[in-house]
Design goal:
The protein has 11 helices and 15 strands. With 362 residues, it is of the alpha/beta class. The strands form 3 sheets. The chain has an 11-stranded mixed sheet, with helices on one face. The chain has a two-stranded parallel sheet with strand order 1-2. The two termini are 25 Å apart. Iron/sulfur cluster (SF4) binds next to loops.
Amino acid sequence: MIEMDKRINLTGFSQIELVSFIEQTGEPAYRGRQIFAALQHRRLQSFAEMSDLPRALRERLQETASTSTLTVESRYLSEDGTRRFLMKTHDNLPVETVFIPEQHRDTICFSSQSGCPLQCTFCLTAQLGLLRSLTPGEIVEQVIIALNDAYGVGETSPRGTNLVGMGAGEPFLNFDSLMKALRIMADPQGLFIVPHRVTVSTAGVVPRIRELATIPDRPNLAVSLAAPTNEMRNELMPINKKWPLEELLGACQEFEQTLKAGERFTFEYVMLDGVNDSDEQARQLANLLNRHDLHARVNLIPHNPADPLPYQPSPATRVEMFKSILESKGVRAFVRRPRGRDIFAACGQLAAVTQTVGLTAS
Ligand code: SF4
């Protein structure tokens, strides 16, 4: 029997909410600010570590509130330094997070749902189905755990941290929790990861793209296309049957028109050998984007193979040819180098894989 933790998770509270929660317990407001900083700035994950709080208060809080609800089950290290964390929620559902170190910055790829309800045929996560959407606290805690693992509890990271919402799940089907988590993480007295350091990727949930166009403090947007025609996209990304390309690109156009200096908007195109990578498909893709007057860059992502999936990555020469056709038609294109493939940490590979030859796990 799984023991459910019914306590309130303070990691999912904004500073204002935490202050008001603490005031309701009869404590002064500054204690709320102190606890927010302990959780979000010092990245402490238990009341016991908050030794600047009176013991009696810590004991009282412990009964009704929690500071951490995720448990790290396994941690895998890639040859390229990427770390993949397989975590469990308090109700025993898988959550995956990936930490990717780079020369000038680190990137943390977080999950917005446990599993995913969308059925993209090139993605291993799809095979889990939707288990449930994650709470704001569960989204924030993934980032805290990854930073603490890389640098030690409360230690300042030597490089900036970027976030990408490209782990398991469709972030825009958990929009309110996602936006709340991003606002908590942007607080200067907390993690202080501001929206322009965050990119959220959607499979094409049109109403939320339109909503994001109206929000001032928003993350960067990436839209996954994977195909230049409705026929092919219906097959690869069945969400296309609900919001077909014309509708999706119409919303993208509206969004692009609201872009402010410093904001980024990109398309993602997974490259599947012999499926969506021909010269003709490159021309179709360029024409489609040009027809909609879209100027966003296209990130070409060689598919990350995973055993039950029926696809192979496009060869490097094919990817280059595809890229040059796009460029010849005025579309900016960029090839994204896969990270952490050997530990099933790359895009589309997150599906709670726990046993693979050659993994370094702890
Ligand atoms: S690619 Fe993204 S949206 Fe599609 S099934 Fe996988 S996790 Fe869900």
